[in-house]
């Protein structure tokens, strides 16, 4: 492992992979629940189950893939074979996810359930080893922030494609099932190219060999979770992702039923989110160097919470105001992406210094259990809020009138739940969530 600066082409190739991961993280979280309830006619409570069950499978396989990549020996290293497998398997699963048969909601539910299981499994093969790589690419504290910042600078491109381009593609192709299929094919091609760039472009990345001796998976999980700073950071990160998952799943409902703006409003809000998030990356890096990662992280959480809660004033005719609020929320969102991922490799080093084992994969696998579990619970919470407030599902082309309680539920899911989750995570971050080396720097 080197502590010298990494070459820019390597950083850019590695970062390109986050376009694919950003796409897949955003599109199902943003559109799948709405696709189920407002295109396929699946009841909100059942639609939430179609999202929850595949994510449980996904979460269960994250540590397994992480530990598997830790032990892998190949001419491509420990991680890169998984990048290739994920890049090839994810696109067909993603296309199938938005190509469900229309007419029988039960059949539509079963189709989406199985396709989502395929897609989430393929995504795990790529994402866990991919996110493990910074910990072995460099040993330098600030260089790791640089690696993660490059990755997070590309991530909003995937988020933008998922959050802004996807609704535009759906609308441009007449909406409904056909529009979703065209969107899925287009974005699957973009994701595949980005992920393959990461695979081929990191062939010269510094790598560590697989350990000669490894402990069992259960023991590795126990060791990782016994690391108190890692555990605090993981739980705080997971709680924040419940809020992020809620706001992603709620935005289409917020745009359609609160702002009365349809797909155009979804596109405007995602451009408003991603543009400031990209600009804010250098800002948060400067904050990290001046005040440390933990202080910057807490500041980002507060910004996110304040401007998420401000969305309670959203109403028809206020799209410009809401776009400005979302832009400031995007500044906080950028910090919520940069700081935890920049702190994770330092905590992995702490474990290696004590145990002599490099467990990047298992630490990262558990990390994505927290992220995916949080995002899934957030989307599921939205489905339950909608079901509890009497939301009326519909098939494409049908017109329905939502009860007043459901409109209030949309506001609660969009503004209150994300802000509350951010605030709930703060006590964990005020404790020591950084490595000993980080605190001493």
Q: From the helix content, strand content and strand pairing, which structural class follows?
A: mainly alpha
Strand proportion: under 5%
Radius of gyration: 21 Å
As a percent range, the share of helical residues equals over 70%
The H-and-E topology, N to C, reads as HHHHHHHHHHHHHHH
Shape call: globular
Q: Segments where pLDDT lies below 50 for 5+ residues?
A: none
Count of individual beta strands: 0
Q: Report on the biggest sheet.
A: none
What's the N-to-C terminus distance? 20 Å
Summed up, the helix count is: 15
Mean pLDDT: 84
Keywords: Cell membrane, Membrane, Transmembrane, Transmembrane helix, Transport
Family: Belongs to the sodium:galactoside symporter (TC 2.A.2) family.
GO molecular function: symporter activity
Membrane topology: Multi-pass membrane protein
């Amino acid at each position: 492992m080197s502590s010298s600066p990494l070459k820019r082409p390597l950083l850019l190739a590695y970062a390109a992979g986050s376009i694919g991961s950003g796409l897949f993280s955003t599109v199902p979280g943003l559109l799948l629940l709405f696709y189920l309830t407002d295109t396929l006619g699946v009841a909100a409570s059942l639609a939430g189950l179609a999202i929850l069950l595949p994510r449980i499978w996904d979460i269960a396989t994250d540590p397994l893939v992480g530990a598997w990549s830790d032990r892998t020996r190949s001419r491509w290293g420990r991680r890169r074979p998984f990048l290739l497998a994920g890049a090839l398997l994810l696109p067909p699963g993603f296309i199938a996810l938005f190509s469900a048969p229309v007419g029988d909601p039960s059949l539509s539910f079963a189709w989406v359930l199985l396709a989502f299981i395929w897609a989430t499994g393929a995504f795990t093969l790529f994402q866990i080893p991919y996110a493990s790589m910074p910990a072995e690419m460099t040993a330098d504290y600030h260089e790791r922030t640089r690696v993660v910042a490059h990755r997070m600078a590309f991530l909003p491109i995937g988020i933008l494609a998922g959050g802004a381009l996807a609704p535009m593609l759906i609308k441009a192709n007449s909406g409904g099932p056909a529009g979703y299929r065209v969107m899925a094919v287009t974005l699957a091609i973009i994701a595949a190219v980005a992920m393959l760039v990461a695979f081929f472009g990191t062939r010269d990345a510094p790598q560590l060999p697989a350990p000669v001796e490894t402990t069992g998976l259960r023991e590795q999980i126990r060791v990782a979770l016994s690391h108190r700073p890692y555990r605090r950071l993981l739980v705080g990160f997971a709680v924040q992702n419940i809020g992020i998952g809620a706001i992603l799943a709620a935005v289409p409902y917020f745009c359609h039923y609160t702002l009365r703006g349809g797909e155009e409003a979804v596109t405007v809000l995602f451009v408003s989110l991603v543009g400031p998030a990209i600009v804010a990356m250098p800002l948060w890096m400067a904050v990290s160097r001046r005040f440390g990662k933990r202080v910057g992280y807490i500041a980002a959480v507060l910004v996110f919470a304040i401007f998420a809660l401000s969305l309670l004033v959203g109403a028809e005719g206020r799209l410009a105001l809401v776009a400005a609020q979302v832009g400031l929320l995007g500044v906080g969102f950028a910090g919520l992406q940069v700081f935890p991922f920049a702190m994770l490799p330092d905590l992995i080093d702490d474990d290696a210094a004590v145990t002599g084992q490099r467990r990047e994969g298992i630490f990262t696998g558990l990390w994505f259990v927290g992220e995916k579990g949080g995002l899934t619970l957030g989307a599921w919470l939205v489905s339950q809020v909608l079901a509890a407030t009497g939301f009326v599902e519909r098939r494409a082309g049908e017109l329905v009138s939502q009860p007043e309680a459901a409109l209030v539920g949309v506001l609660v899911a969009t503004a209150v739940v994300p802000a509350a989750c951010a605030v709930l995570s703060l006590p964990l971050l005020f404790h020591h969530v950084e490595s000993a080396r980080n605190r001493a720097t």
